[in-house]
Amino acid sequence: MLDNKGFDNWAGEYDISIDKLSKGYPFEGYYNVLEYVRNLVDISQPTNILDLGIGTGLLSYEIYKNKSQIYGIDFSEKMIIKAKEKMPNGNFYCCNFKFGLPNEVKNIKFDYIISSYALHHINDKEKINLIIDLKKMLKEKGKIIIADIGFQTIEEMNNCKRKYKEYWDDDEFYFIGSKMIEDLCKINLNSNYNQISSCAGVLVIYAD
After folding, report:
1. Which of 9, 55, 154, 197 reaches 20 to 30 Å from 18, CA-CA?
2. How far apart are CA 133 and CA 186, in angstroms?
3. Mean pLDDT, residues 37-54 taken together
4. What is the pTM for the complete model shown?
């Protein structure tokens, strides 16, 4: 698992390299996944968007072009520099969300909180606690939309692990969609999970 320095080193080549990595584990269908998320965001009017783990801004940029206000969080300073180049009017914060969110965003209400390929750095308990905190920041009718490496069932994950055992990263925490939905239901959070590629899915949590 890369730390913030590893992502700093990757920042300059990230957008180019992801093209080469979008076949097979872990980034199979990468651009389809991002497009799926964007299609869940209503761009008919400007909105407030928080992008958690914004990276170089590949997910947010198309939304930004529609005059939406983007707030981006990432633990890599150099990734944020790249995102700022794409979205000069955005608001960016260098922060590791594993240890909490920046005070500057805690009192803002968002139409959408989005994230792509970031939450696999934290375990399931940390994911749930983060989602609980994020839900408090949603406007009425808002949504949290999380795209990441994930699988509908543990069996599907194990099949992928066997297929790509040479490349598998045991230090990361991938979504198991069915389990995440069950865990969120236990705390009365309305959600759904859709598998988009063989190793990536999108989890949506609703404000009400």
Report:
1. 154
2. 16
3. 94
4. 0.92
